[in-house]
Specification:
By secondary structure, the chain is of the alpha+beta class. About 65% of the residues lie in helices and about 10% in strands.
Length: about 200
């Protein structure tokens, strides 16, 4: 999707309905700065306001994502292109999130591994060794819930029994035994429990 083209289209349609950036922002319950970012192509409208924005501007979501009013002849083609681009963008965003999860995990584990080596090699009092170990364990304990949240929401889990792909509840991911990103969970579709692999595409 061409964000600059979409931004110019939003600005054009806003002017057509005689609204300032501030007035449009007030109708949507956001800041005029957000509207300005859309119109300059620096950001896209959030999905939570997209339908209301289109209603105010008198366009369809397909028009918005295309950056122009789509004729009926090209409607299906443009809709398909827009959907494919949105799927691709989500997949890329999920890849980045999962990379952040790995980097965070490595960064948090390094102090713990380092202290384990130091405590093993250098003689010291047990209390001091315990304090150092606990201090170096804290980063991974603090980061773990956030890492699990990333893994839960980025991409999908695929049931090995029926092939259904889904985003499980946080509790299900948190409590599930796992090997890497493969977790032993119950499928909401078939109700069977299996080792479910993390995948990025739903289709």
């Amino acid at each position: 999707m061409d964000q600059v083209k979409i931004g110019k289209f939003i600005a054009s349609r806003r002017k057509c309905v005689n609204l300032t950036q501030m007035q449009l922002a007030e109708k949507l319950g956001i800041t005029d700065r957000a509207v300005s970012k859309w119109e300059t192509g620096k950001a896209m409208p959030d999905s939570s306001v997209m339908l209301e924005l289109c209603s105010i501007l008198g366009i369809t979501v397909n028009d918005l994502l295309s950056g122009e009013v789509v004729t009926m002849d090209n409607y299906n083609k443009e809709l398909e292109n827009n959907l494919l681009e949105m799927i691709e963008q989500k997949e890329q965003a999920d890849k980045r999130l999962l990379l952040i999860e790995w980097v965070t995990g490595i960064v948090c584990l390094l102090p713990l591994l380092t202290v384990a080596i130091v405590v093993y090699l250098i003689p010291m009092e047990e209390q001091l060794a315990l304090v150092i170990t606990i201090a170096c364990t804290l980063p991974i304990l603090i980061a773990a819930p956030f890492m699990i949240r990333i893994e839960q929401t980025a991409g999908y889990y695929e049931c090995q029994k029926c092939g259904h792909k889904h985003i499980p509840l946080y509790k299900s991911v948190f409590m599930a035994p796992h090997i890497g990103r493969t977790r032993y969970m119950k499928c909401p579709e078939c109700g069977k429990t299996s080792w479910q692999k993390k995948v990025l595409r739903k289709e």
